[in-house]
Amino acid sequence: MRRRTQPLLQQRQQALKRREPFLGSMFHENSKFTPQARHELGRRISQLQDEGLLRRVSSSYKSHPGCPQVALPRAALHLERELQEIIVGRRSTREFDTAQSVTLQELANLLQLSYGITGSLELDEGVTQYLRAIPSAGALYPLELYLVAQRVEGLAPGLYHYRVAQHALEVLETADQAERMLRMEREWGMGSPSAFHLVISGVFERTMFKYHERGYRFVLIEAGMLGQNLTLLAECQGIRSCMAGGWGDDELNQLFGLDGGAESTLLTLCFGRASRGGP
Ligand SMILES: Cc1cc2nc3c(=O)[nH]c(=O)nc-3n(C[C@H](O)[C@H](O)[C@H](O)COP(=O)(O)O)c2cc1C
Q1: To test the ligand 1 pocket, which listed residue (87, 92, 181, 200) has its Cβ within 8 A of the most ligand atoms?
Q2: Which of 137, 178, 230, 236 has the fewest CB atoms within 10 Å of its CB?
Q3: Entry pTM
């Protein structure tokens, strides 16, 4: 009990003295690919071929049956600046112009081109595997995207889930989250409320059933790739963003009805137009 209340730094110093490995180092060690682990993985993957691997690779989507849906326009992104200029010009923004909103088209561009379906493969047994806008270990796509909308034209403020297979938003709740988000954003160091948030979650089993501990690394790597895709796609459209690392896991998981174990929030991003004179 006493240990839990000790400051983290103190705990780490004591662990160092006792030569105890940190949890992170232990995880890293146990998720290494060794010749033996590779052999074991190969054996399991061939076993999985007979146990529904095909079905799994063709069903990497979550949906909320019975939820109303908002159809999204297909992506239509027109670059007015060179990619180099967009990458160099990207800066995290924490002060948003609360008088400006973003359009549904801009949001749809973000969603479809960051994690939407971009191709397909016909596998054995008539199974279609859909491919997405970012690479994914084993093409298993473990991530989900949730939206907290505040100032998006054509969308009531509220909570939504991106239903990738239909390129639509599922309406989870239309209660205005402005106050709650303002409080959370202040905790994360933001200055003024953003137009919307996107929350990336991971459904760990989708990747870990195949790659075990190594799979956890893959899920985090993929969340980072999706985050960067989102910031650059926003930047292309004159929308600024900031990643936020300091959310309270339980509070955010509860907001979207996630259990925090099988599926948990991994990364949060705020978006909006920068206030005048801001970065
Ligand atoms: C995983 C991650 C978490 C972050 N968390 C926060 C945060 O909670 N609050 C914040 O103001 N900025 C946060 N940032 C933004 C960084 O502070 C920012 O990227 C960094 O200062 C570099 O500045 P730039 O993005 O403008 O290039 C985070 C960035 C990353 C990648």
Answers
A1: 92
A2: 178
A3: 0.90
